[in-house]
Design goal:
This protein is 43% helix and 15% strand. The protein is α+β, with helices and mostly antiparallel strands. It has 2 domains: 1-136, Winged helix-like DNA-binding domain superfamily/Winged helix DNA-binding domain (Arc Repressor Mutant, subunit A); 141-217, Ferrous iron transport protein A (FeoA) (SH3 type barrels). It is globular and about 55 Å long. It starts with 7 loop residues before the first helix and ends in a 7-residue tail after the last strand.
Length: 224
């Protein structure tokens, strides 16, 4: 069935399960609920409906082949929309995630093809997350939290989990922490918070939650 024939809720849930798996988080009902900002009861009901329609299996929750296809279409359109909004329409980088949440549900096959045509075959969203089907070849990465003092590397990817937090995205934007930024670890405090220098400029403090979800490339930046 074409992705557009499924309800918006089905597409949102398939996307959430896919993204949790991408982040290495087991998509149990509690995690899905937190990711979407809904109740566990709502997740339970929706998962039962999706199971009946062949999109997921349960105990544990897993996308079927059809469910994975749906999720990949939605994620691809979301991340394409982010690139289009930031590079073509020039919307603020920190705001495109929320806008793309709306766009992803309205993009048809023809519009998706047109978006590809006006951009230079992007392989990632503006935050470094891969666009499904675009041929992204990731470099070796590690969390910023695992950097050694004095180590200098390039920011490659910002976790989707951080993208859900508009305040966090504003902080990253204001700090210059975008994919491609050169990051040097100056200091780590006893609680794990980092003091980093971005592109040789001002020092920035990054807490443990964020530093575990910001990924740096070990051998240059290969995405685009």
């Amino acid at each position: 069935m074409p992705a557009g024939d499924y309800s918006v809720k089905y597409r949102e849930y398939a996307e959430a399960i896919w993204e949790l798996e991408e982040e290495g988080i087991e998509p149990i009902q509690a995690r899905v609920a937190d990711w979407l900002g809904v109740t566990r009861a709502a997740v339970s009901e929706m998962v039962r409906k999706m199971e009946a329609d062949g999109l997921v299996t349960v105990d544990p929750i897993r996308l079927t082949a059809e469910g994975r296809h749906l999720a990949e279409v939605v994620v691809r359109r979301h991340r394409l929309a982010e690139r289009f909004l930031s590079e073509v329409l020039l919307l603020p980088w920190a705001k495109v995630h929320a806008e793309a949440e709306v766009w992803e549900t309205m993009i048809s096959d023809d519009v998706e093809k047109a978006m590809w045509a006006v951009m230079d075959d992007p392989t990632t969203c503006p935050h470094g997350n891969p666009i499904p089907g675009a041929g992204y070849k990731p470099p070796r990465m590690k969390p910023m939290a695992d950097m050694a003092q004095g180590e200098e590397l390039y920011l490659e990817r910002i976790s989707e989990e951080l993208e859900l937090d508009a305040e966090m995205m504003g902080f990253l934007d204001d700090s210059g922490l975008r994919p491609g930024a050169r990051v040097r670890l100056d200091r780590r405090d006893p609680h794990g918070a980092l003091t980093i220098r971005v592109d040789g400029g001002a020092r920035v403090g990054v807490g443990t939650f964020a530093s575990e979800r910001l990924f740096v490339a070990l051998s240059g930046r290969l995405s685009g």
